[in-house]
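User: Sequence recovery, please. Input:
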């Protein structure tokens, strides 16, 4: 079943504009998605009528803000099917969520000679915080590799995990290869060896229905701005059994119970991990984004995005000299590629001249670039507001640019 895309696009007025004189085609959704008017209006209305700092006052605006903030937490809890709101921590985004776990879990559970496993396809946000912690603690970072087709070599996991392994961190969906990793299987394997798992959900939360209890993940991190919400807000889900034992990440207001110069005691979950004034307007916007998506059948949107992926892959494969990186059996709407003889930055710039927004560069995934021995890639990434016509336009644009570069190369010989 195909959703009514033209109706959906009316909710995203940003899509209805000319860029460089051409109708905008936005294929950079993995970097950030757009916000529907419902989210923007909710945040505006809140700022216009309600704003007051949460949790700390008796006055009406502050109380209304606190209620809206905590209602947003409950919306997130339900969306993730977390067991309780104490397990839902608001952060600034996936990066902060992972840093929080790397720091606090590291402080509580990791010592010299212990091991942490990440995968070769991780975004830097799921590599560097672990490296920093390992350096601090004298621990060892181990890497689960992927095959050239973009699938993790899960069969190596059993031998990679040892009695020293303290945590495994893995992306649900790769931001470069598009691979949907079999995280349920990975979690089950890790749990058999008593290793907790952090799932980087930055690229999965926008596209799939997530049930943290069914997955049985120990931590799950995602960002609001990639799932139709605002920037500056994200979530860390964590099982209480871990969070209770982890020390705070940041210190300050709100995360304390009682402060004296002799000793400070900490607040209960989730506040122990929410020092300072949170982005409560962002949290309210994120809840509005979740409610927006819940207005549709998630499966129908996901199926439609899959159709976009299949159609775009088939089209791109018709272009001679175009190489796609990552052809896993299970893929989300992300395609990275290069075209022989054309620098990815040139491609990105020229596509922009045609109104087509794609991402180029190293995509915060140096190890993926190294795996394929390339400096940069071009990435297109889809959302349910994209259309088959847009894919056709991209295809024609690439054919045109390729012909243009072919002529230039011939002239320069
Ligand atoms: N992990 C993955 C897989 C990502 O794609 C991204 C964003 N590109 C991040 C983490 C970091 O997200 P943020 O910048 O919102 O913290």
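Assistant: Recovered sequence (413 residues):
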């Amino acid at each position: 079943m195909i959703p009514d895309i033209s109706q959906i696009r009316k909710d995203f007025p940003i899509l209805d504009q000319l860029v460089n004189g051409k109708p905008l085609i936005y294929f950079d959704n993995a970097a950030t998605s757009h916000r529907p008017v419902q989210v923007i209006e909710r945040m505006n209305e809140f700022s216009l009528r309600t704003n007051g700092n949460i949790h700390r006052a008796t006055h009406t605006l502050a109380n209304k803000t606190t209620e809206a903030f905590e209602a947003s937490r409950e919306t997130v809890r339900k969306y993730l099917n977390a067991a309780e709101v104490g397990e839902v921590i608001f952060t600034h985004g996936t990066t902060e969520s992972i840093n929080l776990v790397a720091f606090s879990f590291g402080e509580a559970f990791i010592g010299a000679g212990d091991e942490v496993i990440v995968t070769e396809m991780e975004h830097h946000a799921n590599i560097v915080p672990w490296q920093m912690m390992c350096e601090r603690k004298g621990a060892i970072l181990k890497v689960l590799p992927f095959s050239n087709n973009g699938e993790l070599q899960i069969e190596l996991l059993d031998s990679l995990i040892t009695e020293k392994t303290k945590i495994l961190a893995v992306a649900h969906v790769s931001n470069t290869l598009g691979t949907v990793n079999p995280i349920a299987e990975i979690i089950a394997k890790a749990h058999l060896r008593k290793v907790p798992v952090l799932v980087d959900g930055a690229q999965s939360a926008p596209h799939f229905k997530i049930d943290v209890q069914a997955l049985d993940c120990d931590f799950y991190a995602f960002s609001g701005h990639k799932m139709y919400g605002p920037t500056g807000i994200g979530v860390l889900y964590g099982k209480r059994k871990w969070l209770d034992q982890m020390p705070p990440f940041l210190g300050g207001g709100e995360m304390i119970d009682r402060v004296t110069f002799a000793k400070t005691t900490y607040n209960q979950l989730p506040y122990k991990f929410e020092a300072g004034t949170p982005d409560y307007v962002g949290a309210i916007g994120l809840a509005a984004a979740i409610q927006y998506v819940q207005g549709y059948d998630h499966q129908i949107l996901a199926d439609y995005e899959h159709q976009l992926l299949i159609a775009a892959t088939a089209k791109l494969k018709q272009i001679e000299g175009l190489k796609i990186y990552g052809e896993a059996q299970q893929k989300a709407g992300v395609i990275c590629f290069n075209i022989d003889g054309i620098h990815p930055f040139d491609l990105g710039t020229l596509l922009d001249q045609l109104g087509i927004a794609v991402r180029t560069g190293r995509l915060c995934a140096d190890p993926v670039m190294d795996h394929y021995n390339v400096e940069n890639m071009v990435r297109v990434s889809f959302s349910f507001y994209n259309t088959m016509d847009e894919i056709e336009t991209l295809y024609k644009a690439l054919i045109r640019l390729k012909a243009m570069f072919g002529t230039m190369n011939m002239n320069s010989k």
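Residues 388-411 form the longest helix (24 residues).
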